[in-house]
Description:
Layout: H1 2-15, H2 17-28, H3 41-57, H4 65-79, H5 81-92, H6 105-124, H7 131-135
Helix pairs in contact: 1-2, 1-3, 2-3, 3-6, 4-5, 4-6
Amino acid sequence: MLRTLLIAFGIAEIAKPQPVIDACERIGLENAEDAQLRPWARWGARLEGAIFVWLLARRKSKWTPTCVLLAAAGAVLVFVPQPIINYSQRLVYANHDELQSKSWVKPAARLLGVLYLTVVTLSKTGRETDTDDDAT
């Protein structure tokens, strides 16, 4: 069920990234109305959604570079979120130095890290039986 919900979220993020970006801005920024998105920000959100769908739809999968990077980003977000918060704001917003983070941006970033780690974990487990195991 969780896998299906996350795949649906990924598809929605691919199709319409702006509502996801708007929600993140409302959660993390005091002055979200002043945020000036860079042109590639929506494509970054779409990429995140595509990674979710790709990893989760594959069911039980091997460790890929994408999976390793998502797990590493998730772990960093959980344990030391500030560097990624700073980097992502510089990457996504033209006026990053004018934006004011809300007090709960770190806990929200940690939750995002948990989400990334959940996607990785779900991508490593599947309900389908492996045909190689059945043959032995």
